[in-house]
Amino acid sequence: MDYIIMLLPSMLKGLTVTLKLFSITLVMALPLGVIMGMARISSFNPLRWFMEFYVWLFRGTPLLLQLLFMYFGLMTVGLRLEREMAAYLAFVLNYSAYLAEIFRAGIQSIDRGQYEAADVLGLSRYQTMKNIILPQVFKRVLPPIGNEVINLVKDTALVYVLAISELSRVARTHVMRDDTFIPFLIAAIFYLMMTGMVQRFFKWVELRYDYFH
Amino acid sequence: MYILQAINIHKNFGSLGVLHGVSLQVQKGEVIAIIGPSGSGKSTLLRCLNHLERIDSGQIEIEGETIAQNNSEGKAVYSSEAKIAQARRKMGMVFQNFNLFPHKSVMQNLIMAPTLVKNMGKAEAEESARLLLAKVGLSQKADNYPFELSGGQQQRVAIARALAMNPDIMCFDEPTSALDPELTGEVLMVMKDLALEDMTMVVVTHEIGFAREVADRVIFMDEGVIMEEGQAEEVLLNPRQERTSAFLSKVLMAR
Predict the structure, then answer these.
(1) If one looks up domain B2-254 in CATH, what number appears?
(2) Which single residue of A71, A163, A196, B197 has CA 20 to 30 Å from B180?
(3) Distance from B240 to chain A by nearest Cα, in Å?
(4) A64 touches chain B (CB under 8 A)
């Protein structure tokens, strides 16, 4: 017990690093995902092609590799990012690609009749997107978005490769130094608490969106 | 002057020709029923008039404004977006599948376009929406969501939603085809009331009884052309074309 209390301060510090990466990624990648999702089905060909390439690139390579590239790769061409900055950049770009695909599929799943109804009523394309299409898309994409957010909680552990002391790296340091498995258990409990909260949050949002079918 | 005029409309979907030179003139206050077998192009014609589809050649005029006309090569050229938008505002459209906005209440469905497109105040829009809901007999349903309504009720909301923009012409694309038989009556009643108020209406329908009772003129389409048109009684009771009578006997037999 004493050992656990002794561990807590450094573990909590690791947790805040994890939470910061998690929040920044989410706050940046969600709106970017919506915009990229729309760009992905734009009638402007070059934009659509670019987005297709972007999604292919960032979904098609390991996030671990992307992290290394943002820090070490860019360094070799003289662009030196802070380690945290490189991590944020890789995470935001990677998660935007995944979310863009989810939003694209969501937008395309809305019945064509909704666009036509808005069209004959005289709504502009922007008004149609904002008032008719996206609110319905948000309801539909909640389950896959929930999946991604839970993945994000766990993916944060990857930034250890940039020697950033997030939760799992702190735990590992203690495990190796103190020759005990307890820090891993504590880290697991922290992760379960975070994913548990994400799960409950999404359940709550889904209930809030339950007023229409 | 015609309130709506289409001259020699041609429309292809890829290599498939759907309309082969269809012309249509509608006078103010007239109710026109377009009938014909599926695939005859009747819905496509309506959608072309509404600018939901672009025509390949021909001419469309709405209240004297030319929306599309042929260039020297015989290909349809459309007017500016602004001009089209203005002309389309005079037309209301009711779809086979209602296409209500599922995430909006009945009231929100009705006031959305007036407030967003016409910049009408919310109170004013709600007031006229209430009158329209009373007209279609759904005053009690203002706060309900579409999924809580029957198909017939949803279609009546859709009609009220189109009327909320105060159109001069109402287009109906098989408005009762997606409904259970016992629910078609309430929708046809609302449409009949509209006709009695001298609304100009173009109705694509399979309801021969409605066409006979309400329409001033009936148009029979087949294979992308107008085969026969005339007074409702004339076309429906004494068709001149063999294909018209063959179609009518099939439709009436199914009753």
Answers:
(1) 3.40.50.300
(2) B197
(3) 36
(4) no
